[in-house]
Amino acid sequence: FKVSRVETTPFEGQKPGTSGLRKKVKVFIQPHYLQNFVQATFNALGADRVEGATLVVSGDGRYYSKDAIQIITKMAAANGVRRVWIGQNGLLSTPAVSAVVRERVGADGSKATGAFILTASHNPGGPHEDFGIKYNMENGGPAPEGITNKIYENTTTINEYLIAEGLPDVDISTTGVSSFEGPKGKFDVDVFDSTSDYLKLLKSIFDFPAIQKLLSSPKFSFCYDALHGVAGVHAKRIFVEELGANESSLVNCVPKEDFGGGHPDPNLTYAKELVARMGLSKTHSEPNPPEFGAAADGDGDRNMVLGKRFFVTPSDSVAIIAANAVQAIPYFSGGLKGVARSMPTSAALDIVAKHLNLKFFEVPTGWKFFGNLMDAGMCSICGEESFGTGSDHIREKDGIWAVLAWLSILAYKNKDNLGEGNLVSVEDIVRQHWATYGRHYYTRYDYENVNADGAKDLMVHLVKLQSSIDEVNTLIKGIRSDVSNVVHADEFEYKDPVDGSVSKHQGIRYLFEDGSRLVFRLSGTGSEGATIRLYIEQYEKDSSKIGRDSQEALAPLVEVALKLSKMQEYTSRSAPTVIT
Ligand code: VG1
Ligand code: CO
Questions:
Q1: pTM (2 decimals)?
Q2: What is the CATH classification number for the domain harbouring 361?
């Protein structure tokens, strides 16, 4: 092939958000749009990280992925990349990409140096929905802000990109290596099995025979919903072929370019089929739900964990995994190096860290901040309230890992009663955890696609209010007299303990005397308008009060949050789009 230089002009708005660049497909398919972003990335990385590189290019299989893979492959070849690695059919979950970058060794002994992940994660897909792209580094984690800022800068001045001319489209449906000759020498495209490397890593972490025993017990039943995302590919291999789960326990596990028209976000609103199967639907009654259910998002890095007629909040989930990891998961048997959560995630993990005397970190929203801690050996387990849980086995959150972690805990707690005796259920484990550590009532209200100016004004209003805590407390007393006092309010700012970098404006916090918290943030993953996230949390230590309905327990704080922020006034919305 030859290298051709194509003239181009900048597009506005190619700024990567919380997790890469996400836009409507109709924006991405404009001539040169994707190409500009990819070239801006190569330029930000610099020749020494691009020439001779081995790049993974794959994603969640959403609409436009196949075209994007061909374009990126040709651009990689033209920019001097030595090898492109592609999961079969272009399918790799985000955690599988991270595992491949860290673990896979090519037939010629090569190791990956980075990855383009093609996904807009939990956003819907299809010709009228979203596409997305992000770059991950050699450690398998998302590019740090230093690089993403550089990428954005480059997109504003770009005037040409390089693409290989005469390089045929690669057949991504069949595994194997194809070699080509370019001006700078050899270029290989290696299409490989999507699950093998990821599976190998997971097998080195968990006790697969113990999980297999649990899954095969007639007392236990299991269900996994991939919402037509890429996790379905891995789920079939791992849960069915390796662990012996029944094929009928997999729901929506065939990936679709448009996720079957659904919203591939694993929560109680969008994972409708799973919610019904687990006996949690308000309109459908299920006589005998499975003991355990879980769902994934489009790119397989998120998880929702459910028990029979029981919802586990993600904030509780990470705390419970951390509390049980050393006993239940072989990888952690030597102890935990530390734990971390994102700022809006509930403080359930903090309490576990205190009890177990573990290092603890609170970082801004988005997985990239955990990676630095893990690279420095300071953190083993971490999580976010947004259905993200993971560990230092990779540098992304990992939906299937979280399911295996829960199955491990269930296997451990039930190791002596799979024969006789009652099964310790998901609900039993959570209630036992609350009884030991107290309960964090938690909910998140999302106002999706609201007017961007209104959203900005609401945030400005909330920051202004913070200048007088007395005034805030007077306002609150006028709204609800049964809510405690605000003792501190600020905009969250994070100084990375490893590289000293500072991230500002990471969410507005109101902290109450009794440990309650209100947090307001603007989403960084949407593709249209603005999305306001309101996080509400209340801590209850009194064991006689830990069994309440969470929306009911939080009602006073919700009322305060909505009135204090003037939510309806600024957004013209009387109710949130989604409550999780
Ligand atoms: C959201 C979540 C955040 C998560 C991010 C990426 O970001 O709140 O916790 O890390 O999505 O997840 P935001 O900025 O919209 O609140 V994923 O599964 O979309 O890669
Ligand atoms: Co995701």
A1: 0.93
A2: 3.40.120.10
